[in-house]
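Dear colleagues,

As part of the handover before I leave the project, I'm documenting each prediction I ran so the next person doesn't have to rerun anything. This entry is a single chain, and its sequence is reproduced below.
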Amino acid sequence: MNIPYTVEERPDTGLPNGKLGIWLFLASEVMLFGALFSTYIILRVGAPEWPHGELNVWLGMANTFILIGSSVTMVMAWASLKMHDWGKHRLYLILTFVLAGVFLVNKYFEYSSHFTRGEVPGHSTFLAIYFTLTGLHGLHIIGGMIVMAYLLGPGAKLWQRNPDQFANRIEFTGLYWHFVDLVWIFLFPVLYLL
């Protein structure tokens, strides 16, 4: 069975089904993170005092640059496919995957540092919201890595059968990945700098 509008655009929306689906999914993610950011603002404004300097700014800044770099490599993976350069596509997608892994390793060290000092989510409101926001973001990173691993592994066979559909899947994965990176660009200053 051939599913319609996997490559070509739907006449009613002007988008392929996958792109419409990812945009709807991202809209729900905006609502989720928007609610959490709103909660953070309400808790912070209502608190008589708020901790400063509890987080490792340098590690947070390194993670920011790592994720920005991973967005660039994701775009390059998609652009390489559009130029029919399978080898470069794989290289850039692997780099994106590795950068995501480095981000998670940095978060592991950051979390470990907090846990060894007894700073757990129940310790303070700040740490509760910090672990909630960064933990949920970390789960989104892992989700993106799972999709990338699939596209590097068994999902790569689609390139032989339908290169345009495969390129669309990389594009949709890239849209998700850019959203995850954008969330971190908001998380870093809100949690680490303010």
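DSSP finds six helices and no strands in the chain. Helices lie at 17-46, 57-82, 86-116, 125-152, 158-161, 163-193.

All the best with the project,
I.
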